[in-house]
Amino acid sequence: MLTTRWSSTTIKSRRRAWKPDHANISRMGTQVKDVIIKPDAPSTLLLDKHADYIAAYGSRKDDYEYTLSEYLRMSGIYWGLTVMDLMGQLPRMNRQEIIDFIKACQHECGGISASIGHDPHLLYTLSAVQILSLYDSVDAIDVDKVVEYVKGLQQEDGSFAGDKWGEIDTRFSFCAVATLALLGKMDKINVDKAVQFVLSCMNFDGGFGCRPGSESHAGQIYCCTGFLTLTGQLHQVNADLLGWWLCERQLSSGGLNGRPEKLPDVCYSWWVLASLKIIGRIHWIDKAKLRTFILACQDEETGGFADRPGDMVDPFHTLFGVAGLSLLGDEQIKPVNPVLCMPEDVLQRIGLQVDLLS
Amino acid sequence: MHGRVKIKSTAQQQEEKRKEREKKLKIYVAARDACFSKRKEGVCDDEALQLTQQLLSSNPDFATLWNYRREILMHLETVKDKDEVQKIYETELSFLESCLKMNPKSYGSWHHRYWVSARLPQPDWARELSLCDRCLSLDDRNFHCWDYRRMVVKMSGVPVDKELEFTDRLIGSNFSNYSSWHYRSTLLPLLHPQSPEPPSPSHEPSQPSPPHSPQTHSHRVCEEQLLKEYELVQNAFFTDPNDQSAWFYYRWLLGRAEREEMISCVYVSRDEERVAVAFSGPVIAQSVSLLLVLDGQPQKVEWRSVHPRFKHSPVWICDLPPGTISDITSEHNLTVHWTEKYTHRDCALYTGRTESWCRDSATDQELFRSELSVEKTSVLQSELQSCNQLLELEPLNKWCLLTIVLLMRALDPLGYEKETLAHFQTLKEVDSMRSAYYSDLCSKFMIENTILKMEYAEVRVFSITDKNLTTLCHLDQLLLVTHINLSSNQLRRLPPQFAMLQCLEVLEVDNNSIENLEGLYHLPKLEEVLLKNNKISTLADLQPLASCPKLKRLDLRGNPVTQMANIESELAELLPSVTDLLL
Ligand SMILES: [Zn+2]
Fold it and tell me: Which reaction is catalysed here (chain A) (predicted)?
């Protein structure tokens, strides 16, 4: 059966009907969203300032903004420490205080919370294990109990709940296997079922969403490709199709967005870049332009990176800015592992080998 | 923190701000501590609900407070009657609605709404659907809300066709809505599934398939619906040819199911007493699932992938016990069973032959049109026509160009080769940020075309020279190839997949930018490697060659490594089998 075909003139009239003025492209959809990088934006890497910014961040304990972010403190510490380690500045942080804090955040169930008084969650359990791996001291917590906690959150369908309240998300699948991989205990969960669940979240564009049926999103793609790397199933990804979607995240400014029609952002730049690295397609974007964008997101006065040029900085975007530059090959920064977002030398020390697509 | 613009302020303003923050901090900390201590004491009262409400209104990501509220609500369920509980939960939903209005992207608020909706004694799904409608009318890309909607639809049994109509409406008011197109990709296969293909007689039924997703085979759309869908998408991209959403969706519509899992080739070599098996995709062929039978006798063999880097590989090899097939006057019958998939392939090694193989006579249809089309040629042809017409209006539109390339490949890859190459050239110019993507895709198509030509000519020689190749792929299809010429391209490495070329004798890769030979690994028949004018710079880069036992001739002229002191003696030690060395 054939559908009706139009002659060239019908097409033109059809287009007129939809789009009144072709010359003046006023889109019916959204305008192309992007930022403009000003000529005076930072263009060199201000490593010392970033180190000072992170070192000072933890001493703002009485600050309102700082207190408001208590619910994610453990991840905040992970962001700060990792970026310091990548810059070779880890010794400036208070190791003992941090390890004691983590110990105090482990609960009876084995899970770890963002801060004291908060409830345990997979997100912060992973952050804590990452921090302890940086410090080569996972033995500071009860590792067997962590493993039991993670195992206990796996559901019948292979998915993972973030905590006992049952929110399901492929992010938590990643948290679970990343935690276990760092602890060398991957065999404690049902890996096959976990893989099946993540694969059931694969979409028409080759990407992944939070749950089966959810739209693809760069953060989720990072989690799922990372998950498939750690479980040795990366060949299940349609790398050419996914790579195309990922490299189409790059906008004229050089920055990458997390979904079509969204603004560029330093953290999405990391998630897209790391995913491309994982599937062996990092060369599909313009690295020089991305570097320019990331550098322009630095704050010359305070140090640190923002999501976009001219916005407020924070440790989260500071880590992903520096980690992104590392993946782009900046030699002033230690090589970063794209799956775990930790320095490669740390993973070597603990003997965790991560095989990417080539 | 996202989208918070940094504002310059004076010292006085800063001081005022500091004081204000200090005040806010005190209130916040007091409320937080009150919550924590109440919870510690196991208090589940109205005050606790109020305190958590106060904090969560401004900070909905404070997950622990949602947990506390749930504990309180669960407690109230046990002490209040059903109507009161219903009321309490409805109040909770109103509170949540105000939270979502303030912050429509908070994971915590959305999850709590899931939780409340699931516990509500008398759920009102119509209200939940209308909440989603309102929320999506403010931001039609909010994925939290889309996911919530999908849950509501599932719980309340909204028919799939109603949801498809919903996406019709959204797309009708704004084509540029990736979320709606995405939703369609999950709905269409449910509503209009492709009729199951008739079982092919040569293969026994396969195992239950893995979970469904729009990527997998079973989730394709029937042809009649596809035609309507083409029409809709074309409306979208004719209206706004730069709207990527429609183009992504279109590429998916044009896509086709993946190849069936099967054994595509069995090769046996008398000299090496070795068997190589190629599959249609990467597998793990442990001896339990892959069984080798020689002249009626099951063999105890160790299967290994061609390179230690691959746990999953499309090509597996094993050595037969010494002496089993080495006598040239003997005849042998070999069967490889893939027990997991209930499939097998036979191969006979006749007297006087040193090698033998059995494989599908591959056609372009079977091999490479994997990206595109089960549709009839005429449909694709008219799709191509429409796109060509659009290209006339928008000659530099990259989305249109790329789609034309894909359609051409589906129709006649060899016939359109020249036009395809020209389009790729334009693509690299108009979308220079992604030129490496286009180069790699173009390389892939060139390799596919070359394999097709090779198949038609029934030869074991593979040659692509001077074609700007940037990457190598489909190497599993070159298992039987003996001569390869890839000279004068832009290759930077011979990847581990290269080790799949188990029959390779001569390799010509002069005039590339190769700096890595990882894939020249245990190639049993490799005799000649011509690497003139590449970027091999250290002895370590040549290390893989030491694993190729028959290597005799090696041309390294024009590589940095030749400048090394003592290079000749070093090489003599590293590669003792080489008798003809060009430096
Ligand atoms: Zn961000």
Answer: geranylgeranyl diphosphate + L-cysteinyl-[protein] = S-geranylgeranyl-L-cysteinyl-[protein] + diphosphate
pTM over 0.90: yes
Please choose, from the candidates A255, A240, A321, A248, the residue with its C-alpha nearest in 3D space to the C-alpha of residue A287: A255
**Candidates 3.40.50.300, 3.40.50.12650, 3.65.10.10, 3.80.10.10; correct CATH number of B460-581?**
3.80.10.10
Residue A266 alpha carbon to ligand 1 centre in Å? 6
pLDDT tier, A142 (very low <50, low <70, confident <90, very high otherwise): very high
**B309·A355 Cβ contact <8 A:** yes
Superfamily of domain B11-192: Protein prenylyltransferase (1.25.40.120)
- A295 C-alpha vs ligand 1 centroid, how far in Å? 15
- Closest chain B residue to A194 measured between Cα atoms? B211
Give the span between the Cα atoms of B132 and B150, in whole angstroms.
10
| CATH 2.60.40.1130 domain locations along chain B | 264-359
Q: Which of B28, B182, B230 has the CB atom closest to A215's CB atom?
A: B182
Residue B301 pLDDT greater than 80, yes or no: yes
Question: Residue B562 corresponds to which tokens in the numbers above?
Answer: 């030749």
- Give the model's pLDDT for residue B461: 96
> Of B6, B175, B385, which is closest to A29 when you measure between CB atoms?
B175
With a CB cutoff of 8 Å and minimum separation 6, the contacts of A259 are A215, A216, A217, A218, A249, B141, B143, B178
Measured between beta carbons, the chain B residues lying within 8 angstroms of A6 are 386, 389
- CATH 1.25.40.120-classified regions of chain B: 11-192
For the range B451-458, what are the long-range contacts, defined as Cβ-Cβ under 8 Å and sequence gap of 24 or more? Answer: B451/B362, B451/B367, B451/B368, B451/B477, B451/B478, B452/B364, B452/B367, B452/B368, B452/B413, B452/B414, B453/B414, B454/B481, B455/B361, B455/B362, B455/B363, B455/B367
Q: Chain-wide mean pLDDT for chain A? A: 91
Q: How far is the CA of A321 from the centre of ligand 1 (A)?
A: 10
Is domain B264-359 annotated with CATH 3.40.630.30? no
Residue pair A149/A190 in contact by the 8 Å Cβ criterion: no
